Amino acid sequence: MNLPFMKSLTIGLVGFGGFGKFLLKALEETPNITVAGIADPELDDHSSYEGIDTYTKWETMILNKHIEALCIATPPSTHSSIAISAMKKGLHVLIEKPLAITPGDAEQIIRTSEETDRVALINFMQRCNPVLSGIRGMYSQGLLGELEHFSIHNYAQDEFLPANHWFWDSEISGGILIEHAVHFIDIAHWFLKEPIIKSVRGWQQFRDNGQRDRMGLTAEYQSGCIVNHYHSFSGPDFFEQTKLMMRFSLAEFDLKGWIPESGEFNLLASSSLIGELKSNSLFSIEETKEVNQTPIRDITFNYTKKVKGRISAKTPKEVLYTNALISIFSDFYYTIRNSEHQPIVHLKDGLKAVEVAYAATETAAM
Fold first, then answer.
1. Quick one: average pLDDT of 200-215?
2. Which of the four, 3, 263, 285, 331, has the lowest number of CB atoms within 10 Å?
């Protein structure tokens, strides 16, 4: 979308840890956005970072009348209080995941956005990943059948995460499923036409020192889809990897990377699907085989070939990540400036992800 008559958006960044610095880089590369301030308890008032004014408190930063919106990248337990206070002061907010650490706090953010008529969005940047978008595009056309199983195996390193980091304090982070798994919960919800939950169950494991470093969940949806998660923060950097598997009634995709960058697929293809695969540079076909359209359990599937191949963004991970963030920031901008623009992700999506993660965390403790 190119609407040059709309004025640029001046943003204040709240939270400037390692991820905050990465966000700043993407914000500075986003057209029509200017960062006018950075607030973090570790920064000094009346100073600057690469020419941008810095503040110890975000409340002081927004005394700058040019700042119209906040990008909130603070520990999760602070998301709701900052977002709600900022909207009541007239600012729009873009909130890093999770939306909040409890469904109640997430609901309050939604109510405040409606009451103040301020734009509030959640940064589920995985929705801007071309690999996932490419698969979802074919799924939305009905070319892959129904999504039956979604599985995420996330082996994250603990080699460089200090024992006193706020991530380990569930009062601050909400725990692994709320702080971390919500991204992947939302991916499944994004694919499902009606992500209506039938049941959720979680589990957890602790180290000898009581540190909860492995969690998982199983969720069943009304569509019949089963979603499984395993998230481990218990090993050295050497073993860090993420595997995402999606099984449809006519296809299976095995993807690699916390931000899925590439993977393999096997599918039963109609002529329409083969045309889609050949026209999309993300996909490469390695093998095809003619097959008979044999009914399975009295269900007739529309396919003519078995296809094996690969999918790849053909982009380095950091660039892929940055581009996804730029898409989210641009979407935030257009949602504020154009009342007819429909955002990529809504607050209710952030709430639904928190609801699943929170329910799994609660049942894990039983």
1. 92
2. 3
With 0-12 CB in 10 A as exposed, 13-18 as middle and 19+ as buried, what is 223? middle
pLDDT of residue 208: 77
Asked whether the bond before 295 is cis by omega within 30 degrees of 0, the reply is no
Average pLDDT, the chain: 94
Domains of the chain in start order, with CATH, are 9-124+321-344 (3.40.50.720), 127-316 (3.30.360.10)
**Residue-level length of the chain:** 366
| Rounded Cα–Cα distance for residues 289 and 305 (Å) | 5
Query: Strands 120-123 and 241-248, how do they pair?
Result: unpaired
What token pair was written down for 279? Answer: 């026209």
Angle at Cα 29 formed by Cα 129 and Cα 13, nearest 5°?
95
> Do the Cβ atoms of 101 and 169 come closer than 8 Å?
no
Q: Which stretches does DSSP call E strand in the chain?
A: 9-14, 33-39, 47-49, 52-55, 69-72, 92-96, 120-123, 147-157, 197-206, 212-221, 226-235, 241-248, 251-256, 262-269, 283-290, 305-312
Which residue type does 354 have?
Answer: V
Helix (H), strand (E), coil (C) string for 188-233: HHHHCCCCCEEEEEEEEEECCCCCEEEEEEEEEECCCCEEEEEEEE
Q: Say which residue the tokens 């990465």 belong to.
A: 22
- Looking at residue 229, its amino acid is H
CB 243 within 8 A of CB 255: yes
Q: How far apart are CA 330 and CA 12, in angstroms?
A: 15
